[in-house]
Amino acid sequence: MKKIALLLTAFMALSSFSVKGQEDTFLREYLERLENSRKYLLEVAELMPEEQYHFKASPESLSFAENLLHIGFAMNWHTKSLIGDQPSISWQEDTVFKVADKTKAEMIALIDKYFKSNIAFLAKVDPKVLNQRLNYFGQERSKRQILMLLSDHITHHRGQMLVYLRLKGITPPRYVLYQ
Question: Which of 51, 79, 86, 128 is the most buried (most CB within 10 A)?
Fold first, then answer.
């Protein structure tokens, strides 16, 4: 009987360790992807000449600079407000990520700072939090799904920036895998 109880206890301990290990793997891999995305976005941002930062593909589009800073706002909002449950402000109320009179160097430094800040924040998140569900624009999503949506959002706006580079005759940096 003791052997069965011991085996059952060992099995339960290993089962819970396995689930936690899977969660930790997700966060570890996500953070690696986010770091690669940070580096790639900075390369893209550096390539566009400062005098072209206000370029728009069409009147209703975001400018190159607005796409860059919108990535920062959305990353900070998704990470700290949705994953971390911190109070948030809307895009309309925000002043940190508005282009205003920021220089190219200031925008790049801001994006770099917030990528690093959000990566550090996520590195401390308890993996169990990722199972929590919340309303995301009318649809119930897990916090894990929110992180995947954030990756898509970064890629979406960076993709627009890559097209802007091409429209200005600039060859974008080679695509970086796993980001």
Answer: 79
pTM above 0.70, yes or no: yes
Residue 69 near residue 106, CB atoms below 8 Å: no
Tens-place pLDDT, residues 92-141: 888 899 999 999 999 999 999 999 999 999 999 999 999 999 999 999 99
Q: What share of the chain is helix, strand, coil (3-state, %, to 5)?
A: 65, 5, 30
pLDDT single digits (tens) 130-156: 999 999 999 999 999 999 999 999 999
Q: Can you give 138-164 as a three-state secondary structure string?
A: CEEEEHHHHHHHHHHHHHHHHHHHHHH
Q: What is the DSSP letter of 86?
A: -
State the burial class of residue 73 (Cβ atoms within 10 Å of its Cβ: 0-12, 13-18, 19+). middle
Contact predicate 176/40, CB 8 Å:
yes
Report pLDDT for 20.
45
